[in-house]
Amino acid sequence: MVKEAFPIFDTLYIGGGTPTAMADRLLVRILEKAGSVFFFTDDPEVTVEANPGTVSKEQLDWLRQAGINRINIGAQSFRDDHLRFLGRIHTAREAENSIRLARGAGFADIGLDLIYGLPGQTEKAWIEDLAKALSFFPEHLSCYMLTFEKGTPLFADLAAGRVELCPEDTVAALFLKTSEFLRASGYLHYEISNFARSARLRSRHNRKYWTLAPTLGLGPSAHSFLNKPPTRWWNVDDPEIYLKTIEGDKRPVKETEVLTEAQSMTETLFLALRTADGIDTAAFDRRFSVSFDRMFGKLVSELTADGLLYPRGGRWAPTLRGMQFSDAIAQRLIDRI
Amino acid sequence: MNNIRNFSIIAHIDHGKSTLSDRLIQAADVISERQFHDQVLDTMDIERERGITIKSQTICLPWKTKDGRTYFLNLIDTPGHVDFSYEVSRALASCEGALLLIDASQGVEAQTLANLYLALEHDLEIIPVINKIDLPSADIERVKGQIAEDLGLDPETALLVSAKEGIGIDTVFEAIINRLPPPKGDPEAPLKGLIFDSHYDAFRGTVVHFRVFDGTLRAGETIRFMSNRAAYKVEEVGYFQLERIPQKQLSAGHVGYLIAGIKTVSDTRSGDTITHRDRPCEKPMPGFKEAKPVVFSSIYPVASDGYEDLAAALEKLKLNDASLIYEKDTSAALGFGFRCGFLGLLHLEVVQERLEREYDLSLILTAPSVRYRLHLSDGSIVVVDNPTMYPDPKDIIGAEEPFIRSTIYTPERYMGAIMQLCLERRGINKTYQYLTSDRLEMVFDLPLAEVIYDFYDRLKSITQGYGSFDYELLDYRDTDLVKVDILLNGERVDALSMLVHREKAEQRARRACEKLREEIPRQMFKIAIQGAIGGKVIARTTVSAFRKDVTAKCYGGDVTRKRKLLEKQKKGKKRMKMVGKVQVPQSAFLSVLRTDSE
Question: Which of A168, A173, B22, B296 has CA atoms 20 to 30 A from the CA of B77?
């Protein structure tokens, strides 16, 4: 069934948790197995997520040899106080070291994850952090605003008043500053939180999520998507239950949803509005047999007049300000569905 | 005729009128125990819930005395609220006597007194009934004292009952038979009947409730309404026993109904006189007047596609409520709706609740307004109850507003607070008078506009529920009227405009701005909220812009959750109205327009 639905893959992403913490050989065996079970194109993008402090030079060599050509390092920050605040086990020095190791192992496509909007963080401090990241010439950067997720220790700290939110105005200013600084340094701001040194170096894999391309997720709580008909399913969260289920030759699916036309439209719009490419109106019209202009033309003109959208080669793309209000803009479009 | 008694029960709200009615109905055996549910006469949900009667009903109670004679006791129920005092007066005009019900712990209240005066105006024989004597807080001697002093009635004639516990119910029947006079009238004289109510029946059309004073009416005869000369052929006459019991005829002294192919309740008028077309009586019954609406408000559906449903619901409601008037209205902010006229604030609330409950509509009502008279520079006078119809202030040389005479009945200790409330409301203290050493009656002339804005609730709260209130419409008096507009980023929100006295303009505008600030969510831009008279801003506040709303991550596992959030917000948005570019939630309108919270 999987082979019919997914005849060929051009990306593979090993992430979620810390895959580099697995025994070396196991990760390599997974890669080998994937290569023998699924078809891949000639030049697949194969990414592994790595946390500083969990990788060794030897391991990185193994991974390179096994065919991984992209590494995404969860550096988060190059300041020890920030790392401590975020509850990270690694130090700034370890982060720097792992990047150097990756380069040394021959990785030509390195992505770094960074977090900003920490309580008390100034614009100056953040730019220093960013500049430090740039000193490694990463091909890709993901800059996330700090969010407090329910169930995390940070969330508990916030609820208990032990930490304060970074003021919304500051976070907004940091967002704009990040984009300005990285674009001035030659990066493309291609998605709200994502920057690449060139169009080629954008994350091919993650762009599949924003364009609703088919993806197959394996492992506990991994999500999959197929588009004919638009269907999403996700696996059970519990690793033990997951294992038991597949050992019993059953699908470990927790839930499946088949999207209605309106839901599909909703997802197409809000995901496209996260990207610098924006909404491809011709593709939208074809996909849904409607007229985007008739449905949204008037609203889009308003949003354009307000400096939130702009026309970009047959697409409606968010301006930088538009990205900042991506949810609100999406909401206004979706209200018309 | 000697075996007929026509009577009403009159009481202050909550003194147990419905419970006593129920008890009498039960005792007279016109309804089986199984059919019985409390407050049989109050058929509307809202009546039962609020414990008040809005639509009066009538029932004929057969009662066999110990010596074997059967009497027919017509209980004519009356609405229990000040807004409906005209309806009450028509019902009382159809009776020979009344039970004046007084709560044994509350004692005499404003409406007790007002109702007594109404009953005395109609020369009714009064039987004082002290109810709820079973309550531990009952103080029968004190109430007897009030009956003597406040009401000028003989306290020794008062009956002691507990309608709830069924105590003393037989004595009520005996008193009705022995102390109330039988009706008078000549069954052979030209027909003269008084309409005191009517209701709508989906199958038969309007059912007219009336009392025959002279003559005899038979099915098949042609009658005429004396006020508008309309003639109808009578299909059926009869009396009520929860169901209609058809009769061959009704004659002098009887209370009952007639059905005559009358399409809507609005074609009949309470207080009108019925006579035969071919042998009319000389003069109509006295006291007829058209019930005129005094409180006005526009009603809009929350959903813009709800207009048709609202129109249909109002039409149905109108079938049964002649005092409700409405016409089409439009608002830039709220779309299509109706401008409605009501007998008072309670009437407004009743209509609103019925539309919402019985017709499942979500509504926005604009601030209630009274009807103003404006004198224009060209010498003409225009009547305005809708702020959107307010003429150019340059052309207005004078304005008048309706005044009421209110009677407030209160324990002495709240006198100061009431005085302050009424003066705040531009009231003029006419008199006050001690009824007993610690209770007094205060009379104020008040602008009606001040009473329909949060007055009852304030009165109740400052008197801890002990103060009671009654009013009658008085006259029009000069006023200094202004129109206050509310603006969002410079756009006028027409539905929030209000006509107010100049002294109150700033306070009302500020309150509206504050409420809006609390309710309007932050948007991508700053929102200026202003209250203005013409071009002059008298209140202002702002909702600051939010600076970002984007979430940091959105990968495969986040899409469904995010979509669901957008879908949920979209659902909530259906309740949003656009004013220019500003999204205003329905709750903001409701909050500004709600008058009961200060």
Answer: B296
